[in-house]
């Protein structure tokens, strides 16, 4: 589907293209197809946090080490990241709807298989299959929402990030509640909800618009050669290390503090996810109306690094560590939205190609973090993973600052000729 980029605001602080809805248009007034995909996104993103509260239970019941258990995240995110590079090639040939449905169907099958597994190695393998389905769905969903939503790119991305935040918030809570019965419960619950999402896409996504031009297999890799997109993708890789240390390692840090039950962990990360959703939807747009996107990143990335460092200092204090998790959620919500907006505006590439390139790189960062965190904790102290995550976030900040001259289009600070070329080309 093709949708032209909105004209850029005048060059200067706060200027950017495609921000906000036109006058009189509410972000909630969207086509039915957008709501169908957004609903399925909520369910898909639940899969990320669903296993979080049951990690200690899986480790105990299946006699697995923390590092082995963290591989549930790594296999999922590694396959997701690699597959992301090829989703635009596939969806441009078989269509967005079919790609979405194949992705959801794979998630249903592999989630059921994980719930029926008898050892941690099998679950790790089935989570990899789950990651393949996740890649097909998530990358295509973002491009579909951006292409079909009313109100411009920013409104579409806010909806997408709201779905992400809501899914990540509900996932741990549902995982904790079902996990209090059995660690298998969250897997079966996720498969059921994904089946509901599958039906929603079949029923509500009636049309996909004009058939897209087939994308070259090399397109997402070539896209990373674009300086703006390459810088943002590299920064997201290091940022995602911080994100997933907070999400995947913290449950093990909370176990010695008496908060290791599935319900307790579910409640902690429900609060984290709600915080993420709130700032994604309300705070990020407020900040980007007042300053350029790159300046928002300059402001919030060091705050996240500080939060992670404080988590390391307070790793033996239950209240302090939980507060750091909640504050981290607030900061991550802003960063997720602003980074995604920046990527969608950084080049005149088709949305699906930009999304595939960026998502592929950033998920690889998430794949590294969980097992690396537990290995660092084993070799040094339980605080070390948080310090390493803080350092990684500072690397992301450094990349954004050093690459600032290549991020003018992401900020909306483009000249009239560049903007006219972007509008003429259109965005898929």
What's the topology here?
Elements: H1 32-50, H2 55-61, H3 66-94, H4 96-115, H5 120-148, H6 152-179, H7 185-204, H8 219-223, H9 227-254, H10 262-288, H11 293-313, H12 318-346, H13 351-379, H14 384-402, H15 408-411, H16 416-425
Helix pairs in contact: 1-5, 1-6, 1-7, 2-3, 3-4, 3-5, 3-13, 4-5, 4-7, 5-6, 5-13, 6-7, 6-10, 6-12, 9-12, 9-13, 9-14, 10-12, 11-12, 11-14, 13-14
Describe the protein's architecture and organization.
- Residues 1-18 have a biased composition (Low complexity).
- This is MFS transporter.
- It is a multi-pass membrane protein.
- Residues 33-408 form the Major facilitator superfamily (MFS) profile domain.
- One of its GO terms (molecular function) is transmembrane transporter activity.
- This protein has 428 residues and is an all-alpha fold.
- It has one domain: Growth Hormone, Chain: A, CATH 1.20.1250.20.
- Helices cover 76% and strands 0% of the residues.
- The chain has 16 helices and no strands.
- The chain has helices spanning 32-50, 55-61, 66-94, 96-115, 120-148, 152-179, 185-204, 219-223, 227-254, 262-288, 293-313, 318-346, 351-379, 384-402, 408-411, 416-425.
- α6 packs antiparallel against α10 (262-288) and α9 (227-254) runs parallel beside α13 (351-379).
- The longest helix has 29 residues, at 66-94.
- The protein starts with 31 loop residues before the first helix and ends with a helix.
């Amino acid at each position: 589907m093709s949708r032209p980029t909105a004209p850029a605001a005048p060059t200067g602080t706060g200027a950017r293209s495609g921000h906000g809805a036109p006058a009189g248009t509410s972000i909630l007034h969207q086509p039915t197809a957008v709501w169908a995909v957004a609903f399925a996104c909520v369910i898909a993103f639940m899969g990320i946090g669903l296993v979080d509260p049951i990690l200690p239970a899986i480790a105990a019941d299946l006699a697995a080490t923390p590092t082995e258990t963290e591989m549930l995240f790594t296999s999922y995110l590694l396959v997701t990241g690699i597959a992301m590079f090829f989703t635009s090639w596939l969806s441009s040939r078989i269509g967005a709807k079919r790609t979405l449905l194949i992705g959801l169907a794979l998630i249903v099958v592999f989630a059921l298989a994980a719930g029926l597994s008898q050892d941690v190695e099998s679950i790790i393998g089935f989570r990899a299959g789950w990651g393949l389905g996740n890649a097909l769905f998530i990358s295509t969903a973002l491009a579909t929402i951006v292409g079909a939503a009313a109100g411009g790119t920013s409104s579409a991305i806010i909806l997408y990030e709201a779905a992400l935040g809501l899914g990540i918030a509900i996932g741990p809570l549902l995982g904790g509640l079902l996990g209090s019965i059995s660690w298998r419960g969250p897997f079966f619950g996720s498969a059921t909800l994904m089946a509901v999402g599958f039906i929603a896409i079949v029923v509500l996504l009636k049309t996909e618009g004009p058939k897209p031009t087939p994308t070259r297999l090399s397109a997402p890799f070539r896209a990373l050669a674009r300086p703006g997109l390459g810088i943002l993708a590299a920064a997201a890789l290091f940022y995602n290390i911080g994100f997933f240390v907070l999400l995947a390692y913290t449950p093990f840090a909370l176990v010695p503090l008496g908060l290791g039950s599935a319900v307790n962990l579910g409640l902690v990360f429900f609060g984290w996810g709600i915080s993420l959703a709130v700032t994604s939807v309300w705070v990020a747009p407020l900040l980007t109306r007042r300053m350029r996107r790159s300046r928002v990143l300059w402001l919030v990335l060091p705050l996240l690094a500080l939060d992670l460092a404080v988590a390391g200092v307070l790793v033996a204090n239950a209240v302090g560590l939980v507060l750091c998790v909640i504050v981290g959620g607030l900061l991550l919500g802003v960063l997720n939205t602003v980074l995604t907006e920046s990527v969608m505006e950084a080049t005149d590439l088709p949305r699906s190609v930009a999304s595939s390139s960026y998502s592929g790189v950033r998920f690889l960062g998430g794949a590294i973090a969980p097992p690396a965190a537990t290995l660092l904790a084993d070799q040094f102290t339980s605080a070390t993973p948080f310090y390493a995550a803080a350092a990684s976030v500072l690397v992301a900040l450094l990349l954004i600052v050093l690459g600032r001259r290549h991020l003018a289009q992401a900020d909306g600070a483009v000249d009239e000729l560049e903007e006219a070329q972007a509008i003429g080309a259109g965005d898929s």
